[in-house]
Amino acid sequence: MTVVVVGSGHNALVAACYLARAGERVEVLERDEVLGGAVSTVERFPGHLVDRGSSAHIMVRHTGIIEELELSRFGLRYIDCDPWGFTPTGPDGGAPIVFHRDLDRTCAGIAEICGARDAVAYRRFVEVWGPRSARVMRAFGGTPTPGRLLRSFWGLDARDGGSALSREFLQTGDALLDSYFDDERLKASLAWFGAQSGPPMSEPGTAPMVGFAALMHTLPPGRAVGGSGALTTALVARLRADGGMVSAGDAVTELRQVGAGWQVRTASGRSLHADTVIAGAHVLTTLDLLRGGGFDGAVLDDWQRRIRVGPGIGMVVRLATSALPQYPGSSTAESANGLQFLVSDRRQLRRAHGAALAGDLPPRPAVLAMSFSALDPSIAPAGEHQLSLWAQWHPYELADGSDWAAHAEPEADRIIAEVDSYAPGFGASVLRRFVQTPVDLERELGLRGGNVMHVEMSLDQMMLWRPLPELSGQRVPGAPGLYLTGASTHPGGGVSGASGRSAAQLVLRDRRRNRLPLLRRR
């Protein structure tokens, strides 16, 4: 069997690796000269290896994929982010909140800063939502069929026939936080962690996104040595070791069904025949490729209308600096290793999201700072550091019709100033910067509408409904042999690789089923 994989995002590469390991002939086609999509690293500034998309890897470390594909043999190495989270002193004072991997240390700090009641509540939160989040990760292990979801959660808090558990999973993240904690800065920290999935924690069904913080005490976010793209490098090496091929700089322009297989055309004029195609591009991009190949246009129109990309999530400012942020009342040993939650009140998050829905810039940027040169000095020259400042929410289309190019630098100034408000003097340490607006994210990485999660991670576009009910099984109705993977599919955005493994499992399962009738006839 010949398999063509469209795109080299990490899910596409994971699928390719599993299939090549199983002995299939696999070729990955990538439009960009840089492999890995949003999981890639380039030299933006002299001597600085800067991530183009993701920086911290969280979910993939909980899937088992790294171990199953033996990626450590191909050079992948992670450094634990510990402490994994840090919230600096807010405008109303109070010592920084530090989230260590060690639960006891974290609770001791919360007791001192937020009070004994919140410390007890945080321990209970981890004890309850740790096992729940582990079951969520189990549900990510395959396509989201009702049977799989039932098996994943079977026996978990089964009191009241599971109705209490269902209610808690469907509630808002804010409601979950309010039910556990009193301190607003603690609640804002965890809400900001949960909001990295895209939706604000005021939306229904976001409680599990907050609850995932409990798993960080089992295995914290990891920083790949050499940059986020080290995961891609290891996957490509694994794929080639098993005989797979990767072609960069040659965009797929058309997918056309021919007989029992597929004709894949590229911008360079190549025409490949494949028994199977795995599309790892944005789902809307994949549907466009089918449109060129003669697929039913009315069906494609319907699907494209119903898939909701959303207004955009955020933007990034990448910095080369002469120093790490110096937060009052803390040391860089506490602040620099993990995710720096630069919020102190959830109202800031709600206002930013509301502004984005209206097509406006946030009244005050909500910033997540990451300074991974503190963990991995290899990504910056001696004497310099590197930061990524992720800010939510920033709309792709501005209500006044203005071009993002006019706002990129002023908004970057505001984001840097936000860090400076928590770490006075930080702005003066900036040496160079690279700004990625929502439009830039689309242009460089193919992220439609600047949405790093591909399509909105809202309740109606998750699990059995991602990106649509009829596409949630990662197969395309009316297009046998075509499979979907990537952030557009279950379990959604973020670095997990789960969708890629699921796609490979489907291909191998379908192939076995198709061979059985032939064997019987013999």
Distance N to C terminus: 20 Å
The CATH superfamily title of the domain at 2-39 and 227-308 and 454-521? FAD/NAD(P)-binding domain
- The chain-level mean pLDDT equals 94
Helical segment tally? 17
Description:
This protein has helices at 10-21, 65-68, 103-113, 116-139, 146-153, 163-170, 173-180, 184-194, 207-211, 229-241, 283-292, 297-306, 332-335, 346-357, 408-422, 438-445, 498-521, and strands at 2-6, 25-29, 41-45, 48-51, 78-80, 85-87, 97-99, 222-224, 245-247, 252-258, 261-266, 271-274, 276-279, 314-321, 339-342, 366-370, 385-392, 430-436, 482-484. The radius of gyration is 23 Å and the shape is globular. Strands 7-6-15-16-17-14-18 form a 7-stranded mixed sheet, with helices on both faces. The chain has a 5-stranded parallel sheet with strand order 9-2-1-13-19, covered by helices on one side. With 522 residues, it is of the alpha/beta class. Among the domains are: 2-39 and 227-308 and 454-521, FAD/NAD(P)-binding domain (3-Layer(bba) Sandwich); 102-218, no CATH class. The mean pLDDT is 94.
List the helices and strands and how they pair.
Elements: E1 2-6, H1 10-21, E2 25-29, E3 41-45, E4 48-51, H2 65-68, E5 78-80, E6 85-87, E7 97-99, H3 103-113, H4 116-139, H5 146-153, H6 163-170, H7 173-180, H8 184-194, H9 207-211, E8 222-224, H10 229-241, E9 245-247, E10 252-258, E11 261-266, E12 271-274, E13 276-279, H11 283-292, H12 297-306, E14 314-321, H13 332-335, E15 339-342, H14 346-357, E16 366-370, E17 385-392, H15 408-422, E18 430-436, H16 438-445, E19 482-484, H17 498-521
Parallel strand pairs: 1-2, 1-13, 2-9, 6-15, 13-19
Antiparallel strand pairs: 3-4, 5-8, 6-7, 10-11, 11-12, 14-17, 14-18, 15-16, 16-17
Helix pairs in contact: 1-10, 1-17, 3-4, 4-5, 7-8, 11-12
